[in-house]
Amino acid sequence: MSQGLVILGATSKIAQEVGRLAARENRELLLVARNEDRLEAVAGDLLARGAARVVAIAADLGDTSRHAELWAQVEAAMPELESVLLAYGSLGDQAAAEQSVDVALSELNTNFTSAASLLSYAAASLERQRRGVLAVITSVAGDRARRSNYVYGTAKGALSLYAQGLRARLFAAGVRVLTIKPGPVDTPMIAHMKKGALTASPQNVAGAIYREMESGKAEVMYVPFFWRYIMALIRAIPESVGKKLKF
Amino acid sequence: MQGKLDPSVGAPANVAPVAPSPARDGSYKSWGHYPLATHRKILHPAWMDEITPELLQRNAPLLAYGLGRSYGDSCLNDGGTLLDARPLDRILHFDAENGSIVCEAGVSLGEILLAAVPRGWFLPVTPGTKIVTLAGAIANDVHGKNHHVGGTIGCHVEQFELVRSDGQILTCSRQENKELFAATIGGLGLTGIILWAELKLKKIDSAEIEMDTVPFSTFEDFTRLSSDEEGARYEYTVGWVDCLSGRKTRGIFMRGNHATQGRLAAHPEKIKLNVPFNFPAFTLNKLSIWAFNNLYYLMGKRNEGHSRVHYDPFFYPLDKVDNWNRIYGQQGFTQYQCVVPESEVAAFQEILERIARGGQGSFLGVIKKFGNVPSPGLMSFPRPGLTLALDFPFRGEKTLKLFAELDEVVAAAKGALYPAKDPRMSSRMFRLSYPRLEEFQRWVDPALSSSFWRRVMEVSR
């Protein structure tokens, strides 16, 4: 019987590190990402680091019209899913999204619509098998829309809500939905930005995520944990003040 | 600016920009913390396809930086750009049947061991730390305790891919682009940027080493212990000498072989101990070094005879302490490593006497007999003879003056110095050490340079 962990967006830095932790435990992995060469590099790495089996499927995750076909491939390659981790996203360019509605919609599609589509397929599979974990990487940015990145924040906020809805639905089937809200992580996604003291290492973030997926009980996790408190404060800022903030 | 896309969605890979970051002060140093450099820019490519000939052109003078274990300035590029190769840390392919491993440039030797040891394979050659990248090991053509039988790491490299600023991306091996293959092994990162390399591993039946510890009291004893008949019985041999004892040489000779049966357990991944900050300067003086050397000697003597140890403490005793270089404090430290023909062993006695006379202690003196396995590298440091490596706290002029004296002894003995350990060798010593330099220069990529290269070649870029 073939069962294991599915990673959507397997070439993202956090996903690679989660993959390595799973590989070290000789797990079976199914990886999906767009760039074939990069995907092959990650697949080779996880095999070399101990994964029992790695299936790699190259697909454009943003293309919702191909999701049905993609998910059929996933189910064929791995009939029993232990867990599914949705790990892709795009930080985007806020200024460009303000200039162009198309850019804004494309960002919303990448970070929310396409993710919701894939989560729907994954939810159906897990609901049918009546067990498993559905883990979704959203962002602390989704907790409150801010001047500097509200397009990204909106999409991630919507994704968090969607995951919340799925949690209520899948609970009855014994499937756990885990919403993961990382703060800034030192990955290629933010390589062009100045790193603050709160920037976490991808290894540490992946470690926390993998532990929570495997043996935790949380429904919503912040990584590192202190973002829960920071975001509680930021959410508590009244609109009349929030609208004047530049960050 | 175009939005940075996650690799799994969006723009095609070949247009993804490599994000530069402002050089974060102090994060790109050499192991000795001397000299320090200020870099104009640091590149952080996450994927091999981001390293293109254009990237090299645009960022000249450029140098790839790995784990920063080179002691001096061969891993620095003051005023220029560094390409941080460490994120290229994927093992692309591992063939557990025939022991060949293909890794991205920034994979560390420790990571190779984690993948290889449980499947019965080991590094064919390993330096005294596993916290170096594979590409860095190739660029310095590193050697280890088995040089007399295994040669340098370059002897076990099957092939690698090299990006050059003239637009070429070349696979180099003993058959294909063999001149560039030879120039890149020991080529100090100056012939192009290595994307990946294939290494042939060595079969083992146990992760443990059967070792002997033998005290010795003269260099003649050492040469006898590592003589060809004696040495050939042991795959790994190395000696430690006390550098404060002056006329009275004393040392510990260690030799070992892979155990023929036992568990194939790799080393622990986590480093437990750390030196969290630079030690203040007063903690290192003649007395403390004398005490350390005495302790080391007595511990070695106590372990005299036969024992069986895991490969981790045998090869990498200092890897147990993260940032151990900080015990040398803010001023940093350096190493003096030379090789001389075996007939010139008297030069070592002379070197130790000069050090003792100057009162500049050295923590660790490591002595090793190189064999005659030839490296494919044009600029390889190891050559038949004896090598001595000495750690020194850096004390400015005083240290430089002592080293200049030692240079004369080495030059008279027709010896050579090792760039990976060097923050100060003269252009003359470099040229004396590397007779094939002219041939090498033809292969240096004009977009690549280092602080070391500019110094020893006396050029501005």
Give an overview of the whole structure.
The complex is a heterodimer of chains A (247) and B (461). Chain A is an alpha/beta fold and 247 residues long. In chain A, helix 7 (202-215) links the parallel strand 6 (176-182) and strand 7 (220-223). The radius of gyration of chain A is 18 Å and the shape is globular. Chain A has nine helices and seven strands; from the N terminus they run E-H-E-H-E-H-E-H-H-E-H-E-H-E-H-H. In chain A, helix 3 (67-77) packs parallel to helix 5 (101-129) and helix 5 runs parallel beside helix 6 (150-170). Chain A has a single domain (3-242), classed as NAD(P)-binding Rossmann-like Domain (Rossmann fold). By secondary structure, chain B is an alpha+beta fold. Chain B has helices at residues 53-58, 109-116, 134-139, 147-150, 178-184, 219-225, 228-232, 286-302, 311-315, 346-358, 397-412, 427-433, 437-441, 451-457, and strands at 20-21, 41-43, 62-65, 81-84, 91-95, 100-104, 121-122, 157-163, 169-173, 193-200, 202-203, 208-216, 236-241, 251-258, 273-274, 305-310, 321-322, 333-340, 365-370, 385-393, 416-417. At the A-B interface, helix 2 and helix 5 of A face strand 1, strand 5 and strand 6 of B.
Poorly predicted sequence stretches spanning 5 or more consecutive residues of chain B: 1-17, 21-25
How much of the sequence lies in strands of chain B comes to 15-25%
Mean pLDDT of chain B: 89
CATH fold node name of chain A? Rossmann fold
Q: How would you concisely characterize the structure shown here?
A:
Chain A is of the alpha/beta class and 247 residues long.
